[in-house]
Amino acid sequence: MSRFAPQWLLSLAALAAAPAFASGPADGSSKPVFVVAAERTHRAALAGAGARLSTLASHDGDALAIREVPADRLAELARHVHEKEKRCGGFFAFDSREQAEAFVRDDLSALAVSAQAASYTVDNQATVTPWLAQVREANIRATIRSLSGNWTTRHAASASGRVASDWVRDTWRNLAAHRADVSVEQVACGNCGQQPSVVLTVRGNELPGEVVVLGAHLDSLASGGASAGAPGADDDASGVATLTEVLRVALAGGYKPRRTVKFMAYAAEEIGLRGSNAIASDHRDRGVEVVGVLQLDMTNYRTAGAADLRLVGDNSNAGLQQLVRQLYSRYLGGGALAEYRCGYGCSYHASWTAAGYPAAMLFEGGTATGGYSPHIHTRNDTLANMGNSAANSVPFAKLGLAFLGELGKTSAL
Ligand code: BES
Ligand code: ZN
Question: Given Cys at both, which of 16, 135, 305, 346 links 90, Cβ 3.0 to 4.6 Å?
Answer without folding.
Answer: 346
